[in-house]
Amino acid sequence: MRKKFRHPVTLWGLAAVTLLLMAFPARGGVLLTVDEALRLAFPDCQITRKTVYLTRNQLAQAASLSDVETRSALVNPYVATKNGRIVGVAYFDVHTVRTLTETLMIVIDAENRIQRIEIIAFHEPREYLPRPAWLQQFAGQQLDDELALKRKIRNMTGATLTARAVTDAIRRVMALHLTLKGTLIP
To answer: Is residue 130 within 8 Å of 159, Cβ to Cβ?
Structure first.
């Protein structure tokens, strides 16, 4: 009969790894590629990526509409069409949640309402990741004073910074969309 041999270094190593995993919560990461997200949002559509450089007046207008700072004058809307009609426009917003970044795809329909939100990347700990049911409350919303936390938008218990970052990103993108509407986006 063979003796079972347990190496003390292996047991200590396992204990150390377990403690490290407990001390540092699992981080999120990239959840979808841009192409995957666009295919989910716009099946069977032709998608055209545009590049827009906002003027100072457009930046000021977007900031005024959203009450959120717009950090870049460069915007890349993805316009989806089907049978010659615009189905929606997708924007990708990268922002900091707490100390790490999150990337959202925000889709706006032809009536200037939020159609869909996808989390593309989330680098904060997973327990702060917004749940699909929480994101669903944005569907059908337009940019107004009620599109805010503690108004039409419920907060997320234990993840207030995430809720604020997502809501601000949506307000920023909606304002950019309305600013560009009629110029480069029909």
So the answer is: yes
* Residue 133 to residue 137: CA distance in whole angstroms: 7
Question: What is the C-alpha separation between 24 and 31, in angstroms, rounded?
Answer: 20
81, 83, 85, 91: CA torsion to nearest 10: -10
- What burial letters (b/e) apply to 52-87, b meaning 16+ CB within 10 Å? bebeeebbebbbebbebebeeeebebbbbeeeeeeb
| pLDDT tens string 108-135 | 999 999 999 999 999 999 889 999 999 9
pTM for the whole structure = 0.82
Average pLDDT over residues 138-163: 92
Cα 93 from Cα 115, distance rounded (Å): 15
What's the pLDDT tens digit per position in 13-35? 444 444 333 444 455 688 889 99
